[in-house]
């Protein structure tokens, strides 16, 4: 029997304004709740809104400057000394423009770097 651990990075969060209004929270209170319950760090995200939604997106400058370093630390921790599972992902990401990284994750072309259904619309 095999067991898997998926480790994720939240790049986007959408929250309906109607849900927030029903909870009688303002945006600052919402962020405090997110910090308490979901390890949300407000300094890492840009917030935009439209008529219906608040949208939190990880800051590009942070994502682009720190992702490779994060993966270089976390992959050996997750996979041990056997780098055959993640080395191709690191090499591919290093060869791409940072603006293409999320597209690569959506394509699911790399075993150790991809979006999965468990992170969508939770």
Q: Report the structural category.
A: alpha+beta
Number of strands: 3
Q: What radius of gyration results from the CA coordinates? A: 17 Å
Which oligomeric state applies?
A: single chain
Integer average pLDDT: 89
Report the total helices.
Answer: 5
Note the beta-strand portion: 5-15%
Q: Segments where pLDDT lies below 50 for 5+ residues?
A: none
Order of helices and strands: EHHEEHHH
Q: How far apart lie the N and C ends?
A: 27 Å
Spatial ordering of strands, largest sheet: 1-3-2
Q: What number of domains?
A: 2
Shape label = elongated
Largest sheet: 3 strands, antiparallel
Give the proportion of residues in helices: 40-55%
Could you characterize what this model shows?
It is built from five helices and three strands, in the order βααββααα. The chain has two domains: 12-58, no CATH class; 60-119, no CATH class. 4% of the residues are buried. By secondary structure, it is α+β, with helices and mostly antiparallel strands. The chain has a three-stranded antiparallel β-sheet. The two termini are 27 Å apart. The protein is 45% helix and 13% strand.
